C-alpha cells in the first residue's frame, strides 16, 4: 500500500469508523461535536476527502448513507509513525523518548512497557 497521509481530523473520523462501522454522517457528527465543535458540513467535506483517498467507502443503498473504512489501522499507522518520527525528531527514537522523559510525560506503566518492548527487541536481535 502506498503511504497515505491523513490529517488530524481525518484520523479522528477513521478512529470512529475503525471502532464501529458502518456509521452515518449524523452518528459521526454527534460523536465528534463535543470534542471538536465541527459542523455536519465540515465532517461531510472530510468524509468526501477520505473517499477520494480511498480510505473510506460509502453505501447509499439504504435510507441513510453509511460510511465504512476501506483501510485498516495497521496499514497506515506504521508509515504515519515513521513520517512523524522523521519530520519531528530526524528519525531518532532516542530523541523522542528523551523529549517525553524530560517533560515527565511517561508514567510508571509507560516505562515498564518500554522496558518490555526493549527486552523483546534485544531478544529478537540475538535469535
Characterise the protein shown here.
This protein has 127 residues and is mainly alpha-helical. It has two domains: 8-69, Arc Repressor Mutant, subunit A (Orthogonal Bundle); 73-126, Penicillinase repressor fold, CATH 1.10.4040. Helices cover 65% and strands 8% of the residues. The protein contains six helices and three strands; from the N terminus they run αβααββααα. It has a three-stranded antiparallel sheet. Strand 2 (56-59) and strand 3 (66-69) form a beta hairpin. The longest helix is centred in the C-terminal third of the chain and has 19 residues, at 108-126. It starts with 7 loop residues before the first helix and ends with a helix. The mean pLDDT is 91.
Poorly predicted regions are: none
The total count of strands amounts to 3
Given this structure, which CATH class of the largest domain is correct?
Answer: Mainly Alpha
Enumerate the strands of the largest sheet in spatial order, edge to edge or round the barrel. Answer: 1-3-2
- Major beta-sheet overview: 3 strands, antiparallel
Can you describe this structure in just a few lines?
This protein has 6 helices and 3 strands, in the order H-E-H-H-E-E-H-H-H. Helix content is 65%, strand content 8%. Strands 1-3-2 form a 3-stranded antiparallel sheet.
